[in-house]
Amino acid sequence: MRVLLALGGNAMTGPDGSASPDAQRAAIAAAMESVADLIAAGHEVVITHGNGPQVGNLLVKNELAATVVPPVSLDWCGAQTQATIGFTVLNTLEASLARRGVERPVAAIVTRTRVDADDPGFAHPTKPVGRFLPYEQARPLIEHGQLWEDRGEKGWRRIVSSPEPREVLETGTLLTLIEAGYVVVAAGGGGIPVVRTEDGTVRGVEAVIDKDLTAALLARSVHADVLVIATDVDHAIKAWGTPQAEEIGVVSLEQMREIAGEGHFASGSMGPKVEAAMRFVESGGPRAVITALEQIDKAVTGSYGTVIEGRPAHQQNPTSQNPTENEG
């Protein structure tokens, strides 16, 4: 079975949220134990991951050094964190596989995700990133061309665009590696945001792409049998935080659309994960699961977590089997 595994930010930091190098290495090593179990069981695995804490660290460095050196753009931040996390995944996953006597090559690919240059997100940036700062500290960054908003007593915070992912440009490379037997790490942090210019070339842009939405697109692009979105809870919760709270188990796409439409999932946490899972199934994916990292072995078979089951192959729209650039 081909599994697209989307690891949340909790898999990349310490239990207390620490993003120190040692904490990151330890957290990623622990996560790779679960991944190695999947691979040892015979599954083909493609890994994508978040990078929020890591990009956050780079943004703080930008802030502190803004009066000395120009800030690094978000596309560069994405590339740097993809490489750093990918390098750490390579080392720790290879070690986990060796302990199990499993010989599988692992590759981490710096991955670009194309967005539309005219995406509405660019005209109306809404995604807050980084920490709150007093105006005196935000001003050098504003003078470098960044957009910051006054958030009252908390201070000023940077706002960036969050466009829809349209195409993972390295898909062909990923498929070649998968077919050659590689475990592939790709599209970390939603992918490095790029646009295609009128002359056909590609350039990076200042944006943050939702990692879960890219995971759904990537899962269809590499023909995954299941999309597993690993987070820090066993199930998505209906009516979370109320006496009526209820874990969501196995549901159809239609049932999950109805639950989501009732407003049960916050846009800054579970909402994008649910939307990504639904998009994968809607585009023809057989199954999507949201659950805790420790449960991914059972999630792959659909026996644990919040499971959205797709339609049987004979009921699917044939056009949904071929991902297009309009997916996202």
Please give a structural write-up.
The chain is of the alpha/beta class. Helix content is 37%, strand content 21%. It contains ten helices and 17 strands. It has helices spanning 21-40, 52-65, 74-99, 120-123, 135-143, 171-179, 211-221, 253-261, 270-282, 296-300, and strands at 2-7, 44-49, 106-108, 112-114, 127-133, 148-150, 156-160, 167-168, 183-185, 192-196, 202-204, 226-231, 237-238, 246-247, 250-252, 287-292, 306-309. It has an eight-stranded mixed sheet with strand order 3-9-2-1-12-16-17-15, with helices on both faces. A four-stranded mixed sheet has the order 8-4-10-11. A hairpin with a 5-residue loop joins strand 10 (192-196) and strand 11 (202-204). The longest helix has 26 residues, at 74-99. The chain is globular.
Summarize, please.
With 328 residues, the chain is α/β, with parallel strands linked by helices. The protein has helices at residues 21-40, 52-65, 74-99, 120-123, 135-143, 171-179, 211-221, 253-261, 270-282, 296-300; strands at 2-7, 44-49, 106-108, 112-114, 127-133, 148-150, 156-160, 167-168, 183-185, 192-196, 202-204, 226-231, 237-238, 246-247, 250-252, 287-292, 306-309.
Low-confidence stretches: 313-328
The helix content, as a percent range, equals: 25-40%
Describe the global form: globular
Strand and helix order? EHEHHEEHEHEEEHEEEHEEEEHHEHE
Task: Summarize model confidence as the mean pLDDT.
Answer: 91
Q: Strands across the major sheet, in which order?
A: 3-9-2-1-12-16-17-15
**Largest sheet, if any?**
8 strands, mixed
Rg over C-alpha atoms, rounded to the nearest angstrom: 20 Å
Name the quaternary structure.
single chain
Structural class: alpha/beta
From the N-terminal CA to the C-terminal CA, the straight-line distance is 23 Å
* Continuous helix count: 10
- Count the beta strands: 17
Strand content: 15-25%
